[in-house]
Write a structure and sequence with these properties.
The protein has 202 residues and is an alpha/beta fold. Helices cover 36% and strands 16% of the residues. It contains six helices and seven strands; from the N terminus they run ααβββαβαβαββα. It has a seven-stranded mixed sheet. β1 and β2 form a beta hairpin. The protein is globular, with a radius of gyration of 23 Å.
Amino acid sequence: MNRRLALLTLPLLLVLATACTAGPETPAPVGQGTVAARPSPFEGCAGLTDGPAGPGDDEASGDPLPELTLTCFTGGTPVALRDVRGPAVVNVWASWCPPCRKELPAFQRLHERTDGQLRVIGVNSRDSREGAQSIGEDFGVRFPMLVDQGEAMQRALRRNAVPLTVFVDAQGRIRHIDSSGALDDARLAELVERHLGLTVPA
């Protein structure tokens, strides 16, 4: 009787074992890894080019942002950097860069404290989508994120280091580029006030 029962239940056990292992062994289609299925931690980029440019200042000098179009981490229409409305702080970073990871929470706090006065924009450079997504989730980074896998922005700015932070005025002109290393809250507030004329609320 026991032998007969074992023979009857064996096919059922084989079916169950196959169902448990078939999922992970089936490769995902190219470009559709498990990360893509998770919601992005970052905000969308649609509003980055909204709003009128600030008043002109004939005394001010500075180069415009590079003439580049970058994709948004969340998808949608690519963003032409020249069309981004300032004032803005653009942080170029990568998940494999320790100083980048160290300073990202300060940029998130800057985003929260200056909401409506200053745009904080990330540019994820030469990184994996999974790496960027994980850092965004772990560090609570929510500001809009552009993607630059070919380091086009760094080449255009003639800088090869990350982190790299670009301070852009209301007319879209670059007022300062910082590549000194990880920035903290106090240093960021100081640079924003000095180069963009904005006081960051405490």
